[in-house]
């Protein structure tokens, strides 16, 4: 019955709203809009418009009960289905080597892992390497470290013309809260022009870990990855296997497994309590 379907859809929206817990707040990220509604359907749009902190699994739960959800057009695993067309007035203009300050709002902690990466929107793959990686993010058993909510990234100097056109790339914060099986994505639209200092390199991600430098090391072996969705091909100028937006590195005991790289591996891992 239509009445029953409406109740189920409304209940799903309420449930997912309650568990909505993380989003980038600065610089201005993509937000729900008419382009998203046209691609993802009215109920998915309403779910996120009422609370943009919501998770992808919640969106899929709502989408299952609607007839106007177009999986291919929505592309829900890229920026939660949020569209560039809804964010054309907020495209950031950066230069290679520029340091960009960012703010992430954690409304409720749920233990998992996270990364900040530049993503090719045409293929939904990370370009190069992760810019920042947290092996233990939003751990609900501890006080949230400052560098999980306030941090900075350095714009890579080897992007060439890849991100020179608005909409071609996003800076994406990806948080997989394993403890509750919820995934959160936030995307910033940007373009890169100019040339950066040759001393700037993004070959190796900065690893922010809750363990100390003495007990957490970067392994130079191939990364162990897990994914609940089909693996995506990683676009990279090097031969290393780097996690995509649908994959992430997982740690084994006290060792954080990091993809191999032709670049030098950092000799020290910053604590979560330190600024990135």
UniProtKB/TrEMBL annotation:
A GO molecular-function descriptor: metal ion binding
Gene3D superfamilies named among the record's database cross-references: 2.70.50.70
Biased composition (Low complexity): 253-268
Pfam families: LPMO_10
Signal peptide segment: 1-20
Domain Chitin-binding type-4 intervals: 21-190
Keywords: Copper, Disulfide bond, Glycoprotein, Metal-binding, Signal
Protein name: Chitin-binding type-4 domain-containing protein
Organism, as annotated: Mollisia scopiformis (Conifer needle endophyte fungus)
């Amino acid at each position: 019955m239509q009445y029953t379907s409406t109740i189920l859809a409304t209940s799903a929206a309420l449930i997912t709203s309650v568990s909505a817990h993380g989003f980038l707040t600065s610089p201005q990220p993509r937000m729900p809009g008419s382009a998203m509604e046209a691609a993802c359907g009215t109920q998915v749009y309403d779910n996120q418009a009422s609370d943009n902190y919501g998770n992808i699994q919640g969106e899929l739960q709502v989408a299952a009960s609607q007839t106007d959800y177009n999986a291919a057009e929505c592309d829900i695993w890229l920026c939660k289905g949020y569209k560039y067309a809804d964010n054309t007035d907020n495209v950031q203009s950066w230069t290679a080597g520029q340091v960009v300050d960012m703010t992430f709002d954690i409304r409720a902690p749920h233990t998992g892992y996270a990364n900040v990466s530049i993503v090719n929107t045409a293929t939904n793959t990370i370009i190069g390497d992760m810019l920042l990686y947290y092996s233990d993010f939003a751990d609900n058993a501890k006080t949230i470290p400052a560098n999980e909510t306030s941090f900075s990234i350095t714009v890579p100097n080897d992007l060439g013309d890849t991100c020179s056109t608005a909409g071609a790339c996003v800076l994406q914060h990806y948080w997989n809260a394993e403890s509750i099986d919820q995934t959160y994505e936030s995307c910033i639209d940007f373009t890169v022009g100019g040339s950066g200092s040759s001393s700037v390199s993004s070959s190796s991600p900065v690893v922010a870990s809750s363990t100390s430098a003495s007990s957490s090391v970067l392994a130079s072996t191939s990364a162990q990855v897990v994914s609940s969705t089909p693996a995506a091909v990683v676009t990279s100028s090097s031969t290393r296997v780097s996690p995509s937006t649908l994959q992430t590195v997982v740690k084994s005991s006290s060792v954080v497994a990091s993809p191999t790289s032709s670049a030098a591996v950092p000799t020290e891992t910053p604590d979560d309590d330190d600024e990135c």
